[in-house]
């Protein structure tokens, strides 16, 4: 490609305003962490990011569907492989339900192996007259409300890199080493899911798939030679928020001379940091990775067009994924004008729906939650809007976990406000549990099979 503007380099963002950065107490500590990261190997390769752009290009052209899912915020305190494996299981299950219904490939991207940074609406948190830096995710500081825990600690940047490497290593082993083999489609149904109505519905699809595999084998097709049946392409992504970290992992591709942010395959710009002249847009416009951008209700269609043109001047399909997060009550009102404006400007994008962040509220008991019905309603509107405009509803962007948590209300098991305290473990936003995630996937599978 080598189309990077001559006025860009990995540090050019530093002359712009960078929102949502912690006030690092020691510049020496920060510079030491940056130097340590620069000396580390990349987490992903340019060729992988390039392949993802191509696959997302198929989504942009209406020939594939995108499933991007994972935690709101990953934790440094995850011990062992189980939590990662279970998250992968539910994403694979959702992808099976979606592929089976739609007949198109599902591109799978985790919010994982680097999703450690959180933008905050308030810079400081005040309790009983004491004010401390807000919790910004484990890449910056820690949750407890003490001066020590909340002090931004640059050594965490390096810890985030190592934790990402460990997670990514496990994901590569799971997805390429037999765990994601389609003949194991039943084994992804975890026990507590299998007992639910959704789990049973999934088992029917899994039976069908097994039957189809047996049929193909009986016809003489050597399934052992079909790598697509035994391995899965699974990509990783996170919000590119803490720019010194992203810059330190940005490398020049020796094949093409292009720059890639090698901290993840895909990076997205959050809803609070997408200013046209801001540091985040400046940094990301120069890297060759596929990029996401959140589109909330306060963005105008003209601004969306200007941002897409800035981030993708060559109009490469698959380069930009717009992640609509309007909320169930505003999507009908707000989203169509964005889609139309991009269409009229001739810009190619992937449109995906984040039905989580516009539907968050706090209960009277002061617990942050979301209603499954609101999430579903926003997704349904998203599909209806694209149907009526003749555009492709390209994907879903979801906060979920493979655990049996009680963070979102409703869904198949009808979780109520009284249940929220049972197993609420999210460090940030409430996530769908494995059963609710599968429930959502089956609803979306129906919309996909209807179009
Ligand atoms: C998120 O995806 O966790 C997030 C903070 O979203 P947004 O930028 O859309 O608010
Ligand atoms: Co979130």
TrEMBL record:
InterPro entries: Aldolase_TIM, DAHP_synth_2. Its EC number is 2.5.1.54. GO terms for molecular function: 3-deoxy-7-phosphoheptulonate synthase activity. Gene3D superfamilies: Aldolase class I. Pfam families: DAHP_synth_2 (PF01474). Transmembrane segments: none annotated. Belongs to the class-II DAHP synthase family. This is 3-deoxy-7-phosphoheptulonate synthase. The lineage of its organism: unclassified sequences, metagenomes, ecological metagenomes.
């Amino acid at each position: 490609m080598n189309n990077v503007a001559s006025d860009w380099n990995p540090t050019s963002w530093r002359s712009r305003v960078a929102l949502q950065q912690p006030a690092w107490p020691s510049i020496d500590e920060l510079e030491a962490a940056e130097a340590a990261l620069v000396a580390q190997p990349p987490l992903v390769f340019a060729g992988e990011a390039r392949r993802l752009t191509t696959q997302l290009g198929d989504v942009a052209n209406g020939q594939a569907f995108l499933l991007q899912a994972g935690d709101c915020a990953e934790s440094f305190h995850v011990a062992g492989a189980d939590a990662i494996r279970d998250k992968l299981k539910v994403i694979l299950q959702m992808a099976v339900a979606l592929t089976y219904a739609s007949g198109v490939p599902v591109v799978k991207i985790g919010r994982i192996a680097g999703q450690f940074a959180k933008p905050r609406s308030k810079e400081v948190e005040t309790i009983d007259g004491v004010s401390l830096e807000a919790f910004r995710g484990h890449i910056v500081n820690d949750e407890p409300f003490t001066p020590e825990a909340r002090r931004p600690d640059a050594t965490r940047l390096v810890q985030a890199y190592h934790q990402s490497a460990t997670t990514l290593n496990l994901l590569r082993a799971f997805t390429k080493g037999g765990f994601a083999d389609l003949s194991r489609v039943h084994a992804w149904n975890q026990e507590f899911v299998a007992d639910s109505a959704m789990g049973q519905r999934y088992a029917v699809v899994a039976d069908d798939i097994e039957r189809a595999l047996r049929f193909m084998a009986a016809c003489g097709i050597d399934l052992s030679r079909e790598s697509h049946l035994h391995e899965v392409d699974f990509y990783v992504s996170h919000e590119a928020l803490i720019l010194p970290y992203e810059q330190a992992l940005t490398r020049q591709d020796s094949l093409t001379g292009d720059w890639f942010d090698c901290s993840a395959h895909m990076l997205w710009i959050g809803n609070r940091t997408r200013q046209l002249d801001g540091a985040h847009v400046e940094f990301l416009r120069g890297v060759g990775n596929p990029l996401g951008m959140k589109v909330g209700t306060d963005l105008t269609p003209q601004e969306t067009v200007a941002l897409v043109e800035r981030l993708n001047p060559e109009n490469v399909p698959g380069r930009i994924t717009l992640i609509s997060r309007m909320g169930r009550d505003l999507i009908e009102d707000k989203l169509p004008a964005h889609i139309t404006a991009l269409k009229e400007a001739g810009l190619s994008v992937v449109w995906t729906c984040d039905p989580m962040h516009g539907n968050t509220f706090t209960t009277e008991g002061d617990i942050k939650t979301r209603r499954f019905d609101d999430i579903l309603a926003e997704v349904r509107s998203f599909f209806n809007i694209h149907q009526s405009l003749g555009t492709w509803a390209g994907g879903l962007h979801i906060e979920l976990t493979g655990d049996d948590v009680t963070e979102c209300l409703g869904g198949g098991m009808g979780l109520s406000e009284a249940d929220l305290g049972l197993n609420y473990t999210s460090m940030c936003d409430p996530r769908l549990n494995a059963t609710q995630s599968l429930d959502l996937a089956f609803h979306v599978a129906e919309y996909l099979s209807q179009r």
